[in-house]
Amino acid sequence: MITKRIIPCLDVRNGRVVKGTNFQGLRDVSSPVELGRFYSDCGADELVFYDITASAEGRKLFTEVLTEVARTIFIPLTVGGGINTLDDFDRVLKCGADKVSVNSGAIKDPMLISDAAKRYGSQCVVLSADVKRVGEGYRVFAKGGREDTGLDAIEWVRRGVDLGAGEVVLNSIDTDGVKNGFDLQMLKDVCGSLNVPVIASGGAGCVEDFVELFKALPFVDAGLAASIFHYGEVSISDLKKLLNSESIPAREV
């Protein structure tokens, strides 16, 4: 049976890891290099590095700190933020990324997904969607959750996979940083019929939230979280022990 992945996320602004609630009120946490090394050593399955203001500020992703993080860790690294062209893919891959996450750039030019998949392979292209409830549906937001694109989340995610995305990260703006559990209904509605790996993001507050996630939604391949790992509220090794005790396969630390 395929093991479930536990993935810490580094939201980086101006070279520092930050965290907020519902994408607002960002506060300083730590050095991405120090945190990356810590997670690599303590059993994380992968690491996600987001330059969270690159798109909103209309600039390219900072590569200096990314290169340093990549040199420090020994687990797969996914990188996103300000990815708008194939040159951006090339640049972060040369810095040490294993996969590249596209969000706002793909919304502006959906063929970026297809072009990148053809050049680097679908396994390298991760579609990240920041999703929020609007009325009776789910809407995709861009530029770090600042801009309502008007895109229906279900349609957009399916289109991204059809274009060649090999993995989907669904970020729930409604539950981000709230710590009341993953947005199970949104995950089911938006990603339940996909045939690629799905990573759930937003809302984890305790180890039981991961158990609930994987039991309620077996199609979800990984759980991504930030603050509960950053502040030591949840130990990755303890989390994996609990998952295995609940017959949810996780790589032993």
Task: Explain what this protein looks like in three dimensions.
There is one protein chain. This protein has 253 residues and is α/β, with parallel strands linked by helices. It has a single domain (5-245), classed as Aldolase class I (TIM Barrel). The chain is 34% helix and 29% strand. Strands 1-4-5-6-7-10-11-12 form an eight-stranded parallel beta barrel, surrounded by six helices.
Strand content: 25-35%
Largest sheet: 8 strands, parallel, barrel
Please provide the count of β strands.
Answer: 12
CATH class category: Alpha Beta
Unreliable sequence segments: none
Distance between the amino and carboxyl termini: 17 Å
Query: CATH H-level name... which superfamily?
Result: Aldolase class I
Mean pLDDT: 91
Compute the number of structural domains: 1
Overall geometry: globular
Strands side by side in the biggest sheet: 1-4-5-6-7-10-11-12
Helix content: 25-40%
Order of helices and strands: EEEHEHEHEHHEEEHEHEHEHH
Number of helices: 10
Structural class: alpha/beta
Examine the secondary-structure arrangement and name the CATH architecture: Alpha-Beta Barrel
- Oligomeric state of the chains? single chain
The CATH topology corresponds to TIM Barrel
Radius of gyration: 16 Å
